[in-house]
Amino acid sequence: MTIEEVAQEERAPVDRAGTEGGDARGRWAQEVMALARRWWIELLRERLNLVFSILQPAIWLVFFGAGVERAIDAEVIGTDDYIGFMLAGVVTFTIVGNGISGAMPLLWDKETGYLDRLMSMPIARSSVIVSRFVFQVAQQTVQILLVVVVAFALGVRIATGPLGLAVILLTAALLTMSVTAAFSALAYAVPQHGTFFAVAGFVTLPLLFMSSAFVPLEAMPLWMEVVARVNPLTYAIEAMRTLVLDGWEARVATSLALLTLAGAACLALGTWQFRKQTGDRTQE
Amino acid sequence: MSAVIETLGLRKVFGDHVAIESLDLNIERGDVFGLLGPNGAGKTTTIRMLTTLLAPSGGAARVCGFDVATQPSEVRRRIGYVMQTVAYRGLLTGRECVEIEAALYHLPRRDIPLRAEVVLEAVGMLPHADRRWTTYSGGMKKRLDLACGLLHWPEVLVLDEPSLGLDVQSRHNVWGYIRDRHVGGATVLLATNYLDEADRLCNKVAIIDRGSVVVQGSPSELKRAVGAEVVQVSTGEPERLRRAIEAERWVKKIIAGEHGDLHVYVEDASIALPAVMRLGLEHGINLKRMTYSQPSLDDVFLLHTGRELREVGAAS
Asked: How far B306 CA lies from chain A's nearest CA (Å)?
């Protein structure tokens, strides 16, 4: 059979699958998984990147936590377990870092033009961002578990146990939704990658320091506390820190609800930017 | 024959720059249709509108009967788009690239491995399928892009400058796969600024310049319309030579090209050549160089725009 005959024979069923609408959700899942597969292959082939990005948070906890612990007043942070206190901060720090490095493939696709090829395909406009989200949640789950193991070795015991750890992972995933979507939106909005790194670099440290990552809210000057209280990072940190140090408390649920809202808002922003930048006119 | 791509008064304006004035195209099923024009003529803008990547500012375009502005997903399902620049595929192997894109076209999971092999085979890339993309040559990367464009057996294959930046051998290679209908019977829309590419591959050509169609038809039709063979004379005194020969019976038309060249359109070059030489001598005009050729698409472009495509292309 020639290529032409094969094509003729096979084209018809493919067309039907397309026009009948088929299983829209199944198609969407297929797109997201295909794109996530692409991110995974790239990460796994880049051994150095893989090793360093997976290890980085654990290293942070050991070097920073162990060093700074001596200089910290237990009265201020409300516990003498500074590593336990730091844990939520390190996880958050990792999520923000992943958000920036995670937007790089999007910048890259945009600048090399591969994004155009993707946009010429019949895929949902949200698939690209969502695939990054899925990929990053998977990557950082490994990172977080490793940090928790290291913290355990350093004597930290999570007050809420294994179930609490599951909720910590859920909290991290919710924050990732905000962070990934926001940095993706930035990646699509900027004219080129230099601007992206300038803006991302500019906002990252203030975002982290204006949260309760390293200092509890109660110990902050008032103006800082006000900023920290509207910072979504703070909600993720407070929820995770409560689960590690204190146990099951109602404010965990409040934090999760607020994080969900922030995530939804960022995702809407990201998808809107994406549509705007890719000149798309339809919602699919 | 039904129109697969149809545009009516298609227009694109960027700010106050009119990229596409008003474009009317009619591409029929089975055509290998060439959009030929210099850089900046509006070829890529046209293609971006037809592939739903850019919203038209005015007019209408339908691909396979679907409007690009209001039914983009229907259009996307039916086109295969091979970009001008090679798609960046990082650390993936050729096979992985193709399989991932197959999933993005929603092919049933169980059909994907086989389909990937069929399209890789179609462009001669199957033997290299499991090598990493980064190890491929420019021509291989282009062929891989072509394979990806064929994955869902599109009704329309859109190729933007398919041989741009390739060496001579890779170019002929890519042309071979397009010309020999390895594209699964798709209608092909091809943008190019290479005359020989359009001439070899296309059964129909629209020459576009400054955002509108100058002329369209089959390459042989267009060349026939030039009507003659072309004697190209290079001289330091083109105006004197023009005056010396323009009254001759065998001269059909004279157009001044760049660098003081004269393009003399004649019925029969074998008679015109010695005559031009004799008249030059009689008038004491120094002729530097003289060639003659069958009319090419370059002559078609020159005839309709007064400029040479090669020159316009090289200048930008």
From this structure: 35
In a domain, A186, yes or no: yes
Residue A13, domain member (yes or no):
no
Contacts of A278 in chain B (CB under 8 A): 53
* Domain B3-223, CATH among 3.30.300.130, 1.10.10.10, 3.40.50.300, 3.90.950.10: 3.40.50.300
Counting one residue from A and one from B, how many pairs have CB atoms under 8 Å apart? Answer: 120
B185, A7 in Cβ contact below 8 A? yes
Looking at the complex, report in whole angstroms how far the Cα of residue A195 sits from the nearest Cα belonging to chain B.
Answer: 21
Q: In this predicted structure, which of B46-50, B62-66, B250-254 has the lowest mean pLDDT?
A: B250-254
Q: Which residues of A touch B (CB under 8 A)?
A: 3-4, 6-8, 10-11, 14-15, 17-19, 22, 27, 30-31, 33-35, 37-38, 41-42, 45-46, 105, 108-109, 112-114, 116-123, 278-282, 284
Distance from CA of A279 to the nearest CA of B (A): 6
A119 and B54 in contact by Cβ < 8 A?
Answer: no
**What is the pLDDT at residue B81?**
93
| CA dihedral over B279, B285, B290, B292, signed as positive or negative | negative
> How far, CA to CA in Å, does B136 sit from each of A59, A254, B118?
38, 53, 19
Which range of residues forms the domain containing residue A78? 26-277
* Contact criterion met (CB below 8 Å) for B80 and B186: yes
Domain total of chain A: 1
Q: Decide if A82 is inside a domain.
A: yes
Assigned CATH for B228-294: 3.30.70.100
Name the residue among A60, A33, A43 with its Cα closest to residue A102: A43
Q: Across the beta sheet with B66-67, what order do the strands follow?
A: B17-28, B3-14, B58-63, B66-67
Across the beta sheet with B187-192, what order do the strands follow? Answer: B79-82, B156-160, B187-192, B32-36, B204-209, B212-217
Share of chain A above pLDDT 90, in %: 32
Q: Does B77 touch chain A (CB under 8 A)?
A: yes
ipTM of the prediction? 0.81
Nearest CA in chain B to A110: B88
- What pLDDT is recorded for position B105? 93
